[in-house]
């Protein structure tokens, strides 16, 4: 039975590694300027972790094969060198990986979180609410009107709680259910939640950030390819969570201007 | 011997009558079995819930016969609704993490074997011990009651993130009394665990037999001892967190709720709270909880392996020190659950480093096991197969942690099936393999009967292959970006992944069904199994020096004296290739 364990474990290890080695399941195309760093780090980690996985499983299988069907009463013996070399090996190999990944590998994180958005970045406000995203553009005045939670009225499409009668800045604000952005221009996303926790996840953008009620968070990113991409909520937000999604519409500058013009005329 | 030099042991009269023997028992062995039984009931409920989830994900219109009787609104006509799916995942997670992974390996086996392994007659505080189980039982009843209230069970996940969990029924179905019951249940559960942890610590420190030095305690006892130290600190944080949540829900406070929230078109009357506070408190408990589940399993598996290999580990001390370092580091890593939560991004880097560092003691433990197999004489049986399977699962679940410990990769993988695959393998399956290994190993001692070996091995093969078929594909789904906690996959690119999801569902149904073999074996062997000898595996530790099952006072009133550490295998002893801890014979190498 020990040999059977060894054989089955070897098969499991190799079958598990096969889809990874053949790149059958990989992340979708990257359309961001920072994503390549994340993808590279993921690939490096996959190589190291994948190798450790296969080696450890094969070693386990080999030892069980060799030492499980010995004659009754066979003499047992210890690995020469004992525990010392095991500890040294763990410190050297894993320690190097730990240091490499935690210090050298933070480039992508820094690119997303430790840089300021450019001054000419397109500002868009994103609101998470049960169970829809809404996006607000500041309009020609470049300013967002203030939010009044008591004025939020979904029935009358006042998703943000604006008061254009009293607030001048609110009058030209543009509200959209999809996030339209121009390609190759930085977007500065100002995030706030209307009710509970939500999250903003676009696989192709390699961006995920929670909406936290009571906390104004912001993100900035640049999309490099036009197209329509899903925005998913990844923070459990209630019964309609699975259906909370919107689209990121990356347009050429020309199409974006057209889109904006049309939105203004609809106001 | 001078009676003053005798180790202090608790003395109580043998239990009389059914109630004292089987219900409100003071005997640590009965309490251990009660915990184990509660975990067994919970694990089967939790498993059935996971079946319902898997079926709903791939065949959403499946009619489940009889389901409507339990969940009238959740499953009209026996078909699971999306909101009931969220109830299922909440209840599955809560039952499994608290009532299975905490109860069985720690409270169950720990209660039964810690006192025997250190040579004590009972726990230090038998009444506290009884109370800790019955408090846990009340927590279980409170949680299960959520299924039977009109509102239905909560839908906020086992992590109960605020403010969804704090606002009340405006936020959705099940967030009224369902969520109240959840918070009350977990608060009560914490009380039970705190009592239990205190008891374990006091017992280990005070009631060791003569000669039982710390380094002569079996690794399993070390694991339970360290786990109780972690549990004492972790549950002491979750308890007040749950009380604050209850206050937010019932007394109108705003610990976790900020101002200006509009839920179901109603402006909420709260101000000043912080949703991140709940996350910090919850994960400050939540990450050590992972080790509360896995350290006892590491202890049990080491104990089983040493006996099965017929030789000592390369170094037991190194395993013990590694477990200590894991326990110590577990307090500095909770933020890795919150990389994209909106906390200061600088702190993500600070949480990432100790998280990656935990890999070092974990690797050392794994390599010690692997290195010890070299030159062994492995006895293959159900217990040792599950122990070897544990090593494999521990490696598989461990390497995926390497990805998630890095904040930048977590941006992409957070909240995907990769995370679900990771924690199910390392915390769920691995810990359950530890429980199963312990069950096959100690069943003869606990019941006086042997389990059926053929059924045990059949159970192992089906479970080993089955769990890999279920959880390995979760990682692939996560790499593609398949997000978790969705009741149905409305994504545009999901159809391509549905065959893999169907494969997982079928594997889950079959692997779950294979557990019935285990249940049958457990019940059949309890009554009809071959009578077990005192020491069926030729073990050295103290539990093998007493009859199977042990008498109510464990050592029949005698005070055992310990002469050796429990790793004397591969030597020329009087009774074979081992020397028992209680045997005064000399060992040449000592």
3D architecture notes:
The complex is a heterodimer of chains A (267) and B (590). Chain A is of the alpha+beta class. Chain A has 2 domains: 2-69 and 78-112, no CATH class; 118-266, Immunoglobulin-like, CATH 2.60.40.420. Chain A has 5 helices and 10 strands. Chain A has helices at residues 2-21, 35-67, 83-103, 107-113, 253-266, and strands at residues 122-129, 132-137, 174-176, 179-182, 186-193, 198-202, 207-211, 217-222, 227-232, 245-251. In chain A, the strands form 3 sheets. A 5-stranded mixed beta sheet of chain A has the order 3-2-1-5-8, with no helix packed on it. In chain A, a hairpin with a 2-residue loop joins strand 1 (122-129) and strand 2. The longest helix of chain A has 33 residues, at 35-67. Chain B has 590 residues and is mainly alpha-helical. Chain B folds into 3 domains: 23-258, Up-down Bundle (Cytochrome C Oxidase, Chain A), CATH 1.20.210; 335-528, Up-down Bundle (Cytochrome C Oxidase, Chain A); 534-590, no CATH class. In chain B, 61% of the residues lie in helices and 2% in strands. Chain B has 18 helices and 4 strands. Chain B has helices spanning 17-23, 28-58, 67-70, 82-100, 103-118, 126-145, 164-167, 177-206, 219-250, 275-309, 316-329, 345-357, 359-373, 382-404, 407-413, 417-447, 453-480, 498-528, and strands at residues 262-263, 266-267, 569-573, 576-578. Chain B has a two-stranded antiparallel sheet. The two termini of chain B are 25 Å apart. The model of chain B has no long low-confidence stretch (mean pLDDT 94). Chains A and B meet through helix 1, helix 2, helix 3, helix 4 and strand 7 of A and helix 4, strand 1, helix 10, helix 12 and helix 13 of B.
